Amino acid sequence: MTAREKPSRAIGRKSISASLQPSDLMAEQPQLAAAWQAQVITLLPDAFPGILGESLMGKALKDGLWQLRTHDLRMYGEGKHRNVDDTPAGGGAGMVLRADVVSKAVTQAKRHARGSTPILYLSPRGKPMDQAMMRELSACDGVILLCGRFEGVDERVLQHHDIAEVSLGDFVMTGGELAAQALIDATVRLLPGVLGNDQSAVEESFSDGLLEHPQYTKPAEWEGRAIPEVLLSGNHGKIAEWRQARSEEITKARRPDLWAKKQG
Predict the structure, then answer these.
(1) C-alpha span between 29 and 87 (Å, rounded)
(2) Crossing angle, helix 177-188 and helix 55-62, to 10 degrees?
(3) Other beta carbons less than 10 A from residue 167's beta carbon
(4) Among 16, 78, 217, 235, whose Cα sits 20 to 30 Å from the Cα of 224?
């Protein structure tokens, strides 16, 4: 590690106690041998863990079920001002992240990776994220995520490191950080022990190629609207049939593409 490189920061299996001194949740941590690890290469390391440090994700992070490590891309920049980008070859608006700068960060992330750890670039031209992708990633040892900024990343570094592109949707964002957090959340929740009740991940949208059925809870009647009687009947067979039928109806109406795929 060169003198100007800032160490990556990791979080996981960190106890939290009352203190007048603010805790650095992203302080350097030892790598957890059995934990699924998300590594994020970003110009905005302070954006992490963000929402991933809250609720079930945050608890699983603290308990060491997964680990988060950020790599500040600026620390690998060139020159006195640590430049990370330059103008597009051939002209055009905006700036492009340099291949040599990004490559140094990717190489450093690879040193922390183990086993099966794919490298993904969050990009609107990438393969759309779906539940099947999240299941595949949850079966890996971790993932390295490259968050783009400006007009994107020099194509050569993507080819050199065999980096696949994935997309949150058909729209453009100012950077890949939010998409990275969405991918991590959707993957980590599939890890054993994270949800508490593993059945929750089985009965939700996309688990069987369909959108989820409607959900209800108390009060039994609200604003003149009652919970469907079958859900209060105690007949689990009928309840299962009702939920399956509603899932199919909603999928047909709202996602005909999913329905067509389901029909084969």
Answers:
(1) 37
(2) 70
(3) 18
(4) 235
